[in-house]
Amino acid sequence: MSFIDPEIFFTIHADLPREGPGETADVAWAAEIAGITSRAQILDAACGPGGDIGALLRVAARGHVTAIDKHPGFIEAATARWGKDDRVTLLTGDYLAPEGPFDFIWCAGAVYFVGIEAALTGWRAALMEGGAIAFSEPVFFIDTPSDAAKAYWGEEYQPKTLDGITAQIEAAGYEMIAHKPVSDIAWESYYRPLEDRISRLRRGADETMIAALDEHLAEIEGWRANKAETGYMLCVVRPV
Q1: Residue 143 domain flag
Q2: Are the C-beta atoms of residues 73 and 9 closer than 8 Å to each other?
Q3: For residue 100, what pLDDT band results from cuts at 50, 70 and 90?
Q4: Both ends of the chain: CA-CA distance in Å?
Q5: CATH number at residue 171
Q6: What angle do CA 126, 128, 131 make, to 5 degrees?
Q7: Of 53, 51, 48, 44, nearest to 10 (Cα)?
Q8: What percent of the chain is predicted at pLDDT more than 90?
């Protein structure tokens, strides 16, 4: 997606339940794999509007979730949902430099902004001994993706295959415990509310807004057309 004015972007995305693909089952699966207990201290890194906080609290009902995002608007939205729960701390700031320690770090769809090695290296000091990290990362499911699948991600970023992701995890001094593709349900949980928002905003919109809405719609259609070739891989990792 090309540059969109931040004001327009946040008008489109304001109060959406999620800011990326995900579902409750993903959190439960990753936490079980990682052996997370009900008293766990958890970091929700780049939490967006808090779409995964409820699922994380179900995992750690007697623990605590610290949710960080750099965008104040997302933290405001998360605070409206979770601000009265004393098991949740909501912070505006750098999700790569949290004050731990944490048993479990969860990051849905934001690692690729900085790269796997940078994120895992940055989080290591905040991870308790025996702790684990779960993150979702763009991936090509086949070795030779089509031009259309490549175009979905744009010219500036191209995903790796699972082997490439694994190599980056190992280069950061971690091991892959488990992995699985993020499901179609998880993608639609993000895209369907966004699609509804696009439809509502289109009525009476000016040319600038219409162009931004069209770009968002093209992204949704691009994923649906190419989901057999590309998507997200949910990875659970632990320091070696």
Answers
A1: yes
A2: no
A3: confident
A4: 36
A5: 3.40.50.150
A6: 105
A7: 48
A8: 88
Q: Which residues contact 12 (CB under 8 A, 6 or more apart)?
A: 194, 197, 198, 201, 212, 213, 216
- State whether residue 229 is helix, strand or coil: coil
Structural domain including 88 reads 21-183+229-239
pLDDT at 171 over 90: yes
Q: How many other β-carbons are positioned within 10 Å of the β-carbon of residue 12?
A: 18
Within a domain: 90: yes
Six-digit token pair at 89? 């701390």
Residue 213 within any structural domain of the chain: no
Tokens of residue 125, six digits: 């000091």
pLDDT at 1: 52
Strand locations in 61-154 (E): 64-69, 88-92, 102-107, 127-140
> How many domains does the chain divide into?
1
Contacts of 197-206 with C-beta under 8 Å, sequence gap 24+, read 197/12, 197/13, 197/16, 198/12, 201/11, 201/12
Segment 44-57 mean pLDDT: 96
Section 175-179 average pLDDT: 98
Residue 22's DSSP bridge partners are none
Place of tokens 């004001």: 7
Asked whether the beta carbons of 9 and 211 are under 8 A apart, the reply is no
Instruction: State pTM to two decimals.
Output: 0.93
Residue 2 falls inside a structural domain = no
- The per-residue pLDDT for range 107-144, each reduced to its tens digit, is 999 999 999 999 999 999 999 999 999 999 999 999 99
